[in-house]
Amino acid sequence: MLCDCCKANEARISMAGEGYQFSVFVKPEDDQAAALMRLHRKVITGLQHQTLQLQDSEFTISNALQTADGQYCINDTGCGRIEYDEITGGHHLIIDGRPVSGSDFLNMLSQYEGRNLCYQVRELSDDILEKGMILIPVPLFTRSIWLKA
After folding, report:
1. What is the largest CA-CA distance in the chain?
2. How many CB atoms are located within 10 Å of the residue 74 CB?
3. What is the pLDDT of residues 69-113, one digit of tens each?
4. Is the N or C terminus of the chain more exposed, i.e. has fewer CB atoms within 10 Å?
5. Which helix (H) or strand (E) holds 92?
6. Interacting residues of 79 by C-beta distance below 8 A, sequence separation 6+
7. Residue-wise pLDDT tens digits, 121-141
8. Three-class DSSP category at 108
């Protein structure tokens, strides 16, 4: 676990390991024990709700992620992190703690061919999408937001 300063009045508490990263933002004057409990709940949630699903099939599934420990298909909702790979000099996704190349990710998504894809880029400290949660389009009326600010 590490704590690094992001701004003068905020700190990020993070846990990392085995490809996973979890983080919460906390102000120095806030209850640090409560922040640690939020991080703990976030770690448990993130580990319980997997994006990749191990397939129990003796046959090769063409649009599954092929790994040494089996083949994985992607659920219709989930989370991942974009990461730079210093070895290849490119980017890949980390999904369920596993590195997944862009081409493997697109291959797994091919099971949903013909459907729309909605995505949302979020901060590492934001809540994790859990099972049963979806992204819902919400109209933002910027004029009313500016008037309230």
Report:
1. 60
2. 24
3. 899 999 888 888 899 988 889 999 999 889 999 999 999 999 999
4. C
5. strand 90-95
6. 46, 49, 51, 95, 128, 129
7. 777 777 776 666 666 666 666
8. helix
